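Explain this fold:

***
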Amino acid sequence: MVEGGAVTKPDKTEFSECWRTSWQTPYIMKMALSAGIGGLLFGYDTGVISGALLYIREDFRSVDRKTWLQETIVSMAVAGAIIGAAVGGWINDRFGRKISLLLGDLLFFVGAVVMASAPFPGMIIVGRIFVGFGVGMASMTAPLYISEASPHRIRGALVSTNGLLITGGQFLSYLINLAFTHVKGTWRWMLGVAGIPALVQFVLMLGLPESPRWLFINDKEEEAREILARIYPEDEVEGEMEALRASVESEREMKESEGNLLQRLKDAWGNKVVRRGLYAGVTVQVAQQFVGINTVMYYSPTIVQYAGYASNKTALALSLVTSGLNAVGSVISMFCVDKYGRRKLMIISMFGIIVCLVILSAIFFRAASTSPSVSTFESESFGKNSTCPAYVDAPDPSSWDCTKCLEYSGCAFCSNKQGKYKTGACLDLNDDVRDSCRSEKRTWYTKGCPSKIGFAAIIFLGLYILFFSPGMGTVPWVINSEIYPLKYRGLGGGIAAVANWCSNLLVSETFLTLTTALGSSGTFLLFAGFSIIGLVGIFFLVPETKGLSFEEVEKLLKKGYSPFRKHEDKDDD
């Protein structure tokens, strides 16, 4: 997955045991899937805005002309998620996991309704913030609830369903986008439909209990026992109660010795094991975002249009492929991460990402340099008032081509009747001119130009996803669940997660601005540069944690990790 909470990777035996146990006790799967809808909402929101944005731009001309407004509509959900995750942690502890999920559903539902009924772009932004609050709460609460309400022997497999539902939600969002391409209200339906699974989860969660661990912590032992009796066989309940009691008492003792947050942060940074763990954990989380993955997830149809596919429906259909590949990559990761190791999988992933980004940069550069030319005859055939003002006032309009035309925010390219690769027109960007262009069976381009090699961009975009998903998509979360000492695991993982969300916000808020300033080619090349820096950081800072106990990882970091030291050295003092 692209974002989320800490993941415990299950093995094949655990999957088999999960299937057997869930078949015998359906109540377990009911709890896991009901909570897992939070992951589905998370994934749906990530994917749906990419398609809805195409139609929001058509309905609101101010959005189409202002890239910062498009970026804000997309990224405000991420900003809301940062706040939602932070507040959600307090709500989880104070009021419980169930209340947190219910509140997240309510916020998500309100956000979906506000967006679907928005009369102007500002209301869409408000709705995105509400949705972000819900996403942030769901991203941390859903896996926590599943983990605490699952038998320990299948916990990893059940928690992993949340990750699958995230990628499944992304795939579903593209299907929904395609379904509403020819329905009146397009983007309103796309964004509004998200309220349905939120409502479904709200109703399901009303009939489910609080997590037994939270109940036990809050001195409701009998209620906790009743829930454990529905999860475990009768002869295991008392043993689980004793294990829960020991775990909670240990946690309380640890919290009493920790002090306030500021003191905990100071102690963590002063501990060289934690500090080195943070170097590794934060590096992989920031690298995950700065390879540009969420530009693909949030702006995938727009990127497809940059490749020369002007039709919204075609852009959405091709984007569906990237979303499907992301889901496939998540499944591949489950079977590879414990076989090949975390470090190796990330390094291979980064190499593939860098190669794909460099090739994508070359493809977009080639497409821009060979775009169809623009002529005064073609442009003025729609009337002088329809011609792009920047083209009319240009000192040398004969040198213009489609790429030059689209550099100006008020211009669009209308292809030639005889073929989209022939000389076309540079026209004013407004609805009436667009309709005149299309009425002559021409194609209207606003983001990218006709290109004979556009299909190659789609192929390498798909390969980029396939390299990203099994490695950098999931492994950073695995690393952060394994690399910190027990006392600082929550704090370290939280710091790394905040780094991930903030990096996500920065990248998603600047992508369209970068493409305007640097072009598609320059932007992908910039991400390739960031990826190289990330690869170097991973190589020097991130140790292999496959097959190591927490104590062995701590010992490795205490000594100081070096990629040039043999793995066996971890046992030396």
